[in-house]
Prior knowledge:
The protein is an alpha+beta fold. It has four domains: 1-34 and 563-616, no CATH class; 43-76 and 388-557, no CATH class; 82-113 and 347-384, no CATH class; 114-219, 2-Layer Sandwich (Alpha-Beta Plaits). The protein has 17 helices and 22 strands. The protein has helices spanning 23-34, 36-73, 76-79, 133-137, 160-169, 205-214, 245-248, 278-286, 326-335, 386-412, 424-429, 432-443, 451-465, 499-508, 512-518, 529-548, 561-615; strands at 82-86, 92-96, 104-111, 117-119, 142-147, 150-155, 174-179, 184-189, 197-199, 228-229, 255-261, 266-272, 297-302, 307-312, 341-343, 347-351, 354-358, 362-365, 368-372, 376-384, 483-485, 495-497. The protein has a five-stranded antiparallel β-sheet, with no helix packed on it. Helix 2 (36-73) runs antiparallel to helix 16. The protein is elongated and about 155 Å long.
Amino acid sequence: MTSSVSGSSSNRVYGLSGSGIDVDSMVEKLMTAARQPYTKMTQKQTVVEWKKEAYNTMYTSINSFRNDKVFNFGMKSTLAAKSVTSSNSSVASVTATGDAINVNHTLKVSQLASGVTQSSTEKITTGTSKSTLASQLGISGSFNININGKQIAVSSTQSINDLVSNINKSGAGVTATYDTTQDRLYLYTNGTGSETGIDYTGTGLAGLNFLNNNLKIGVFGNIDSTGITSSADTGITDANKASSLQTAFAGLTGSFNLKISDGTTTSTIAVDTSTDTMESILTKINAIKDSSGNSIADATIDTTTGKFILKAKTDGENLSLTGSDYAGISFLNNQLKLSVKQQGQDAEFKLDGTTMTQTTNKFTVSGVTYNLQSTGTSNIGIQTDTDKIVSSVKKFIEDYNTILSSINTKVSEKRDTDYMPLTDDQKEAMSDDDEKIWTEKVKTGLLHNDSTLETLANSMRSAFASKVSGLTGKYTSASSLGISTSVDYTENGKLYLDEDKLKAALQEDPDVVYKIFGTDSATDKNDGIAVKLSAMLKTASDGIVKQAGITASTKSDITSVLGKQYKEYTTQLTALNTKLIKMENQYYTKFNAMEEALSKISQQSSYVTSLLGTSS
């Protein structure tokens, strides 16, 4: 019979002699002994891999404790937590950081910060299709609108969604949306405060007419009791206010309509420039009455400055000139020089008697964050949140004990070198449960007496046992706050908390926990316990990285001690495997030669036998 072995280059001819020798079995037995060094080296490499995994587990735990637990615990907002009381939470919701002083504040809000919101006053679609602005709104041609200095092209071939997209991409600081159900366009400033607004200055008459009469957006809208005023001198004086508009405004001809509404009452004022005067327009506006017979508007002209002023008659009411025709818009814009912009407003309030303004309703002053909700007055108290601090310390001690126990366990558990990783043949001979138990024994004690972890555990215990340098007085250490180490040495530094003692310390000094744990000084020796712990954990983490890298993987790690060791084993195993293949081939070569020799002897024997048979 013929046979082959992976990696073998010999031509095997054993079996030709009829000797009955099981060559494969003999070679396998010979190679079993030869493969022992290879097997042992493979087991050692596996141990290196598992040790790397064990280090990585500790690396992950240590970094998680440092980054998530120690960092958050060491913050002043944790160690000097504050509670807030408010006599009127509807005026403002208030929170305080650890930097806030324990005092009472008075807050009187007179005005909230706001941006500008504009929307169509009614449905805007007049056509049967919304595929283009032409089919939806009936416009034609192309023109531009300006919003906050950004020019936006409008074409009748665009859709309403194209217009919305172009506004939003323009960088004008506003957001546009179109509600298909309401059939209205909405514009919102992206912020609040007096520095925000919607300004159409620079928009031509075609654009203003489009905004005002097609999109139904009140370019001249939201006119409250403070009113709007001409941005420049209109040229109206005592001498010409009774003259025809054609005379007062040279070049003005024809007629137009002004539409004024307070939301419930709407009136259209017909103006003939050849007969109407500035005085007659004022009279017509001021004569508009609501259903109760009350005036809705107050229009005046200051002949000294030449400025026109229009106000809502009643506080809380808003007037709009939306719906005025094309020529009317031109008159409002060019002759009366009314502003085509609306600005947001700042929050205005008194804090502890001092008048202040903010561009937003949420702001922080001296560690206290106010979120204004409405106008009104509220008395606010800031106190140390003792219960929260105690809870935070208690939780931190639990986390500390968990990580310290994990480190102590890994350092103290002993390694039984009689247990090595199982070979494939050994695994086949074992049950799954037995295999699992065996593997756990191999992995136990891989970090026994590890210097990096042992140093970390000792340093952590020392940090809690020592005083914080730089502090004086009654409270200078963790033990002075009621945090003590177990007297049972077998617990290896486990911490316990006396909550009553901690609360008493906080009553005497609300910042005492932060001083002992969170102090971050220019000199390391004067740092608080949490700051020192963070540094210790970082040192240990860096030590693990040098020893085992940042991951459990052995594929890309060629810089750590174990990574290099694993790679060296791989190189040696490759060389050893090549040697074993060569050895196996040599065995087969020898057996081949023996078979060939036996075959020749057998042939010669048969020949001699045949000769003897013939001679007889």
